[in-house]
């Protein structure tokens, strides 16, 4: 059994590119459904990784403490260092969480991994705006993102409008965007390997 090669390409790589180009023209673009499930993955990973980071931090603090008074003095002396460390941990958590979210979206959509990652990030912004409006209208008890460390929030009451709050908000916006885009590209790359395997198999049958 043989397959006809109608593309005119002479190498498996070139034939794969031809196939992917034709598929992308028809099925490419942002897939908002895939991106939504990617965002759900990112939020779930944010909760899990934040809980893990908190548990590790509590464990380390308990192991290093030698009396309440000494611990309080040390915390006061190292407040700036602790703030920087918390920011680094937050950035790592958000990057990993949104990398996973972008990967899910890119894997589901197959094409345009960067756009899928961007869409995952946009879902986070859209949900944050909806929650902020709901909290402003119906009360702060509806600000469900307040319990998720690192989830983008809109400071409707001005509580985040401090230097540390602004820095945290920047981290919560920029780092997830980078992680989601990188993850989206990684998820899409899996399908290129699958496409290449199919073309290689077809080439073997043709030969």
Automatic annotation (TrEMBL):
Q: Where are the transmembrane segments?
A: 36-62, 82-106, 118-139, 159-183
Q: What is this protein called?
A: Uncharacterized protein
Write the record's keywords in alphabetical order, separated by commas: Membrane, Transmembrane, Transmembrane helix
Q: Which organism is it from?
A: Paenarthrobacter aurescens
- List the taxonomic lineage: Bacteria, Bacillati, Actinomycetota, Actinomycetes, Micrococcales
């Amino acid at each position: 059994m043989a397959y006809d090669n109608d593309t005119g390409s002479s190498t498996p790589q070139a034939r794969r590119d031809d196939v992917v180009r034709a598929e992308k023209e028809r099925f490419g673009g942002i897939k908002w459904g895939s991106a939504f499930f990617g965002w759900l993955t990112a939020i779930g990973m944010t909760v899990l990784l934040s809980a893990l980071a908190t548990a590790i931090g509590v464990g380390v603090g308990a192991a290093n403490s030698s009396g309440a008074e000494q611990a309080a003095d040390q915390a006061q002396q190292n407040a700036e260092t602790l703030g920087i460390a918390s920011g680094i941990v937050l950035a790592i958590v958000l990057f990993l969480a949104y990398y996973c979210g972008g990967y899910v979206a890119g894997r589901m959509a197959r094409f345009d991994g960067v756009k899928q990652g961007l869409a995952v990030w946009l879902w986070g912004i859209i949900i944050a705006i909806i929650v902020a409006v709901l909290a402003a209208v119906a009360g702060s008890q509806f600000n469900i993102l307040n319990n998720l460390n690192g989830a983008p929030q809109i400071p409707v009451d001005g509580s985040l409008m401090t230097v540390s709050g602004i820095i945290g908000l920047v981290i919560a916006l920029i780092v997830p965007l980078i992680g989601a885009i990188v993850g989206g590209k990684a998820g899409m790359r899996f399908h290129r390997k699958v496409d290449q395997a199919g073309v290689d198999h077809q080439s073997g049958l043709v030969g």
